[in-house]
Design brief:
By secondary structure, this protein is mainly α. It contains ten helices and no strands. It is 74% helix and 0% strand. It is elongated. The termini are far apart.
Length: 179
């Protein structure tokens, strides 16, 4: 209702596209599927701004689309220091970490998403989680086991929330390999 009131009071405001995207996402979460077409239109048409990125992210979160489509738009919207850029960075990191968890078998994708998170995120724990997922992926391939072990050791020496997980994974790996 808040977004609808804002849009009625300010139909030509610079934030009207963003308010429309957020209204559509909120209505879908509340079970009002009539907003799905508006959200799809916002995600597919218009300038590549935060509103379009948010609409694409909302559709991806519902399973309507892949996160890959939203991540490019969010990455573009994440440039800058304003509120929208900060929200875009947060949504990008959430989506990228989810994609990393879902695509642990795809090492090039893991590496690319991890590097993007390391460049975009301001959170040490988000960066550590991305590195942990990448290290676990590297342990799955005989050619990159050494890199995975080195990253786990490096993470374990840190103070992030994932340091213990990294040391546990490294210990398990070495115990299984009898090192």
């Amino acid at each position: 209702d808040g977004f609808t009131a804002f849009l009625k009071a300010n139909p030509a405001a610079p934030l009207s596209r963003e308010a429309s995207a957020k209204r559509g996402a909120a209505c879908l979460k509340a079970g009002k599927a009539t907003w799905l077409n508006e959200l799809r239109a916002l995600a597919d048409k218009g300038e590549k701004d935060f509103a379009r990125a948010y609409a694409a992210w909302a559709l991806a979160e519902r399973g309507e689309r892949t996160f890959a489509a939203a991540l490019g738009l969010l990455k573009q919207a994440a440039g800058g220091d304003d509120r929208a850029a900060m929200q875009a960075r947060e949504l990008f990191v959430r989506g990228a970490l989810m994609e990393m968890d879902r695509s642990s078998w795809d090492r090039p994708k893991l590496n690319s998403l991890c590097e993007d998170i390391l460049a975009i995120s301001n959170s040490a724990n988000h960066k550590a989680r991305a590195r942990l997922i990448r290290a676990r992926g590297n342990l799955q391939d005989g050619r990159t086991v050494a890199a995975g072990e080195a990253e786990l050791k490096s993470l374990g020496e840190g103070s992030s929330d994932f340091a213990d997980d990294a040391l546990f994974d490294l210990a398990m790996r070495r115990e299984n390999e009898r090192k």
